Amino acid sequence: MPFFKLQFTGHKKEEEIGPYQLAKELEEIIIDALTGGEFDEEAFQKLKMEFVKNPDTWERLPEVVKDFNSLREIFKYVQPMFKENKYKNRRKFIEKQFEPFLEYLKESGVDEVRKKLIIDEKYIEKSWKRAQKQLKKAPDEALEISYILLEDTARYILDDLDLNYREEELPPFALMEIVMDKITLSSEPVIEESFKQGFLFLARVVEQVKGKIKSDSPEFQMDAEVVVNIIGTSCLYLYKKYQFMKGKGS
Question: What is the pTM of this model?
Answer without folding.
Answer: 0.63
